[in-house]
Structure formats: structure tokens, C-alpha cells
Amino acid sequence: MMQSFIVEHYLNKDVDVYCGGPDVFKGNVEACADNVLTLNSEGKLTHIAIDKIIALWGQ
Q1: Do residues 41 and 16 make contact, with C-beta atoms less than 8 angstroms apart?
Q2: pLDDT 10s per residue in the chain (59 long)?
């Protein structure tokens, strides 16, 4: 369910992703498949397990 929400509302958009602790991941949503969110930040890819996401918001 979260995967389809991300694809419908945030695909190809810049977002911040919070998974707990002090880190916030930032980047453009490049893909969201197989329960993994892929962010692109200046050519570097970050892969985040969707079930670990606490909050997600647009930049």
C-alpha cells in the first residue's frame, strides 16, 4: 500500500525521508519497487526499505 502511494504521489519528485534517529535521507524518487524506495541525490543512489520509513515529505 505504501509503495503505490509513493509511486502515485512522489515519483520523480524531491523528498526527505525519515527512518528514525538523526538521519534524514534526501533525493529525487527514482523508483519504488519490491518494497524498496530508491532516491537519487546528485547521481548517488540510496535504497531504503519501505517498512522502515516513518515519515516522507516533499522538499
Answers
A1: no
A2: 899 999 999 999 999 999 999 989 999 999 999 999 999 999 999 999 999 999 999 98
Using the structure block, give the residue that is written with the C-alpha cell 546528485.
Answer: 42
Burial 3-25 (b: 16+ CB within 10 A, else e): eeebeeebeeeebebeeeeeeeb
Q: What residue numbers bound the domain in which 41 lies?
A: 2-58
CATH number at 38 reads: 2.30.30.520
For the chain, helix, strand, coil in percent to 5 are: 20, 55, 25
